[in-house]
Amino acid sequence: MFYELVTLSSHILKLPEVIASAEAYLNHPETAGRWLGAWTSENGRLGSVRILRGFVDPGTLSQERARALHHANPFGVADSTSTIEMESYAGFPFLPPVEPGSFGRYYEFRTYWLRPGGLAPTIEAWEAAMPERSKRSPLTVNMYALDGVPRITHIWPWESLDERIAIRAKSYADGIWPPKGGPENFYEATSTIWIPTINSPLR
Questions:
Q1: Same domain, 118 and 67
Q2: Confidence check: pLDDT of 91 > 90
Q3: Which member of 28, 80, 103, 151 has the lowest number of beta carbons within 10 Å of its beta carbon?
């Protein structure tokens, strides 16, 4: 499965306008891909909206990217002084495609910037660790970038931030996390918390 992660950043008071415009764009008949989720930033750069879409093949994703680049009003935000960032990803091959549903009140987005040659061992490490780790809490997706700096981005849903801290601490203590051989392959990481919008397919 292939994914597009779009981040729209504007003034925090314009968030309702940005969300409504983006939803209208996503629901337009000419828009390709499956809308999977939308979130607003809770920390980091405030006033941001993040959108996840799924595509069955890279060609469809590429065509939709080209359409957005040439569109006069991509995601409906051309008149809202928003900035736009569009990233292309492929899902880790052993993970199932993302399916919408209710999984948590908060979503954590973690991005790891990889060392050269670090992708293959990272995927192997995650494949070995996830059967045990997934018993503790669900993973929405892990995916690797098809453009820009080599990196992976994974998304975790949580009912509360206290739950997140407790489960991560117990996983570390039990020695099942982080994936053995994984941390050696990245040199920088970020973690941000996002809240699903009212109409987000992933909640």
A1: no
A2: yes
A3: 28
